[in-house]
Design a protein that fits this description.
This protein has about 450 residues and is α/β, with parallel strands linked by helices. Helices cover about 35% and strands about 15% of the residues. It binds pyridoxal-5'-phosphate (PLP).
């Protein structure tokens, strides 16, 4: 049977814009997955980087300052561009591709599940969603999981859960719009929680928010790692939730102190507010622990997850204690795509690989190798202020802007990104990168920082 593109009769050729993309006839009668995949790859046209970049600016809304690079494929921690140039990928799609690119176990899961059932919406039960929830609950502080599609959505879900929790606990009818309850949130300097109106309001950088004002009102800002500052704004009768990243990523690779997280736990308990750990970037093996908060021995009421969970497919999750779950009822929140069987089955595979003591130990060993190497190649460089981080969430703090370093490193075959005020080189590679990948990244970054420093001094 051939699937053909059908054109509605009212839709004439003249209504169409010229199309660069060829119609591809896909035979679904092919039973062998390998030959099906190969038939797709064979029909792939050669791409010209210049053309893709020109088309991108013509057709796609310009909200990203992309590097001038067209990536076509990857394997492990290596990716290749349209001109065949190879790179060590120290970005992993911003801490997403935990298993690297094209992991065989992940691919096999996807192919098998896609051949069975990809999407049902949440109208029905699926085994994959339950299997993933079981894994997350059985291996964390949580009693229930809620699935969504991204980090910002996970935080929006947590915002709603905390709001409803406060309304129910206040003893009012949560569905009576004339009554109010504690509804403020507290977040911290250098935080990043996402780009939708609630998560954006919690995010520190003003420039992300100002063009879209007003964002969600009722946010109190405190200083990260400063309990005295937090004490002033976590207030009984006002605060319903406190959002904090146990290790800040985007804000500049800042780990929390144990005293700070424990202090927040105590302040939330005294105020009757929920403590929400945003582990969208630092969770699921990135720090060398399954959950970043294990480094501190402090547990939240809600934890949000996203980036690495499905190995590159869009997913988000909010894990919560039973007292939070108890206030949510059918119809209170939902999403069409969330937790579909394709994504959840992929996430089960990712989770099983990462949740293995020897895998987590290897993340810690790689972290030590990477940080030691970076300290060695940057020793004596006056532009390097610090090399820090937990696991494979590593930052090199500079006394100059980091983007020229990333540009030079890219030309030399290593991909890295910035963080903080733009003065930090952020390294969030696939957790499976090899010693050879680390060595190349270290050598190239040492040279790139030197060259960028020399240029800045001129
Ligand atoms: C800590 C943290 N929270 C939330 C988000 C938002 O996630 P997403 O981009 O998937 O919406 C990010 C993204 O970088 C993040 O680092």
């Amino acid at each position: 049977m051939l699937l053909k593109h059908h054109q509605p009769s009212s839709f004439t050729q003249s209504d169409r814009k010229p199309r660069a993309v060829r119609d591809v006839k896909r035979s679904v009668a092919v039973t062998d997955v390998g030959s099906l995949l190969r038939s797709f790859f064979k029909s792939e046209p050669a791409v010209s980087s210049k053309q893709v970049i020109a088309d991108e600016s013509k057709y796609i809304l310009q909200t990203y300052a992309r590097a001038p690079l067209v990536l076509t494929h990857g394997m492990g921690a290596r990716v290749w561009d349209a001109d065949g140039k190879e790179y060590v990928d120290m970005t992993a799609g911003i801490a997403v591709n935990a298993l690297g690119h094209s992991d065989k176990r992940w691919l096999a899961t996807l192919v098998e599940q896609a051949g069975k059932l990809s999407h049902t919406s949440n109208l029905y039960h699926t085994t994959a969603q339950v299997d993933l929830a079981k894994r997350l609950v059985d291996n964390s502080f949580a009693d229930k999981a809620f699935f969504c599609n991204s980090g910002t959505e996970a935080n929006e879900a947590a915002i709603k859960f905390a709001r409803k929790y406060a309304r129910v606990k206040s003893g009012i009818d949560p569905y009576d719009g004339t009554q109010s309850a504690p509804h403020e949130f507290v977040s911290f300097t250098s935080s990043f929680h996402g780009r939708t109106m609630g998560a954006l309001a919690l995010t520190y950088k003003e420039q992300y928010k100002t063009p879209f004002l007003p964002v969600m009102p009722g946010i109190q800002l405190a200083k990260y790692n400063d309990l005295e500052s937090a004490k002033k704004v976590i207030v009984k009768g006002k605060t319903c939730g406190v959002f904090v990243e146990p290790v800040q990523g985007e804000g500049g690779i800042f780990p929390a102190s144990k005293e700070f997280l424990q202090g927040l736990r105590d302040l939330c308990d005294e105020a009757g507010a929920l403590l929400i750990f945003d582990e969208v970037q630092c969770g699921l093996g990135r720090t060398g622990r399954l959950w970043a908060h294990e480094l501190y021995g402090v547990t939240p009421d809600i934890m949000t997850l996203a980036k690495p969970l499905a190995g590159g497919l869009p997913i988000g999750a909010a894990l919560m204690k039973q007292h939070v779950a108890d206030v949510m009822k059918p119809g209170d929140h939902g999403s069409t795509f969330a937790g579909n069987p394709l994504v959840c089955q992929a996430a089960c595979t990712v989770f099983d690989i990462i949740n293995d003591p020897s895998f987590l130990a290897s993340v810690n060993a790689k972290s030590e190798r990477l940080k030691a190497g970076l300290r060695q190649v940057t020793a004596g460089n006056p532009h390097v202020k610090d090399v820090r981080g937990s696991g494979l969430l590593v930052g090199i703090e500079l006394d100059m802007m980091a983007s020229p370093v990333c540009d030079i490193a890219r030309d030399m075959g290593v991909l890295a990104i910035t963080a903080g005020k733009g003065d930090i080189v952020r390294l969030v590679p696939p957790l499976v990168l090899s010693d050879a990948d680390i060595n190349k990244a270290v050598d190239v970054l040492g040279v790139a920082i030197k060259k960028a420093g020399d240029a800045a001094e001129k």
